[in-house]
Amino acid sequence: MTATAGRVLRQLAHDPRTIALLVIVPVLLITLLRYVFDGAAGTFDSIGASLLGIFPLITMFLVTSIATLRERTSGTLERLLSLPLGKGGLIGGYALAFGAVAVVQSALATAVSVWLLGLDVAGSPWLLLLVALLDALLGTALGLFVSAFAASEFQAVQFMPAVIFPQLLLCGLFTPREAMHPVLEAISNVLPMSYAVDGMNQVLHHTGVTGDFVRDVVVVAGSALLVLCLGAVTLRRRTP
Amino acid sequence: MMNSEPAPAPPPPPDPAIEARGLTVVRGDRTVLRGLDFTVRPGRITGLLGPSGCGKTTLMRAVVGTQAKVTGRLDVLGRPAGDPALRPRIGYVTQAPSVYTDLTVRQNLDYFAAVLHPGRAHRDARRDAVARAIGDVDLTSHADALAGALSGGQRSRVSLAVALLGTPDLLVLDEPTVGLDPVLRRGLWDLFHRLAADRSTALLISSHVMDEAERCHRLLLMREGRILAEDTPEALRDRTGAETVEDAFLHLVDAAAPRTEEAPR
Predict the structure, then answer these.
(1) Is residue B8 a part of any domain in this protein?
(2) Nearest chain B alpha carbon to A83
(3) B13 pLDDT band (50/70/90 cuts)?
């Protein structure tokens, strides 16, 4: 598992532009957001906190789906599966590597938001970081799973709007989930991003760890784990 | 290296590296391999020859255990093909080089070596295996170049080096010399013969270039999912009265399809 994680990070290390984009773009966007809502600090707080949870999910989804798709199309996946490597080891390695990238990305975005942009968080920034990391793992898991259904990079990129945007619309970022049509609210109740955003808002509004926060964290982590297992099922040693 | 042939009266043949009886593979609604029988022996280079699309790659994938819908009997190193215990003992090189283009040659090999022999305890052994494999394919001077920056032929040698890492008992090589210049090709064939002689490795090597057939100990001639002949190059030439293996192959093709080619020629 660590061998695979090390290899994925080494691949990234040869691609400094991707690293720069991964790390800097969230910071720039959250800064932009701060000045978009220049007159309404409260709006920046709630949307900013939500976005700190959504960025890692989206970027890790994209990075992982492309990376694993390349692994599938380049033949390296077939080679790996003909070697004594467990599927769990491979998937765990990816999760570990992109989790590490997500820690750097989220730490920087959270630090800039809280200390430079004046994001007003009642709870501990560490909890924000924890949720961001779990979101990143969820993104990695979804990306890994979805890449099994993409035959090309074009398709893989199109899965982003297909899988992420509905969650984005329904997660409570634009309208509180309670105010939605009951059907939509019910759908949003089973989408993991709703809990990711709710977790961020719990930290935003409460000083301590609330029951809802624990539920959110468990749901996001559980979803990530479940989707990772589904991703493992899509890795077949024997293919037609 | 071929001067040592014919070998002195051989001891009883060792257990076959690959033994297929009635091997059949279906892909989609097409039967790609139709009840093949053949044997591959250790310490021998078995050439798998036939036109593109005749099922060579499918046969190799079945041996390695990555092909779905395989029926019939297919034993590899004494176990059914695809058995997890076989994974560290088989080196497989696909036709397209399967290496990470965004890693250096050494990083590629380091990773696959770590997959084969994980753990800190094997670190020194891994380093030696990586250095040896890079040397085997003559890429020591390019060890720290990105695989993506290499030429096609060099990249396919990186892919071959990965397969050599674990000192496999069986090497399955799908067109390993395509796109290589004659000097490199000779170098690789020398390497294959060394592996067969020194490490008793069984090699199954596919090619559609018939002149490479002369370098193999035994040949499997394939056409349209069937095996036309299984013999040594000399015996094939003698049997058909042909000058080259290519002529022997064409002779066998004509002989095998008398009814469909009754038209005057």
Answers:
(1) no
(2) B87
(3) low
End-to-end CA distance of chain A: 27
CATH number of residue B47's parent domain: 3.40.50.300
Query: Which of B28, B101, B116 is nearest residue A83 as measured by Cβ atoms?
Result: B116
Contacts of A238 in chain B (CB under 8 A): 65-68, 82
Structure letter (DSSP) for residue B7: P
Indicate whether B10 belongs to any domain.
Answer: no
Q: CA-CA distance, B247 to B264, in Å (whole number)?
A: 20
| pLDDT given at position B234 | 92
The span from the CA of A133 to the CA of A221, in Å, is 10
Residue ranges of domains in chain A: 2-234
Q: Contact B210/B245 with Cβ under 8 angstroms?
A: yes
The predicted model scores a pTM of 0.86
Which strands form B90-93's sheet, in the order they lie side by side? B90-93, B170-174, B202-207, B45-49, B218-223, B226-231
In a domain? residue B123:
no
ipTM of the complex: 0.87
Give the position of tokens 């398709």.
Answer: A155
Query: What value does the mean pLDDT take over residues A170-179?
Result: 88
**Contact between A237 and B118 using a beta-carbon 8 Å cutoff:** no
Whether B92 and chain A come into contact, CB under 8 Å, resolves to yes
Number of domains in chain B: 1
Contacts of B3 (CB under 8 A, 6+ apart): none
Which residue in chain B is spatially nearest to A16 when comparing CA positions? B102
Angle of CA points B200, B204, B206, to nearest 5°? 150
Domain range holding B202? Answer: 15-96+168-256
Give the integer Cα–Cα distance in Å for A156 and B184: 39
Which of A7, A12, A80 best tests the B interface by mutation, with the highest count of B CBs <10 A? A7
- Among partner residues B66, B99, B111, which is closest to A78 by beta-carbon distance? B66
CB contact under 8 A, A3 and B114: yes
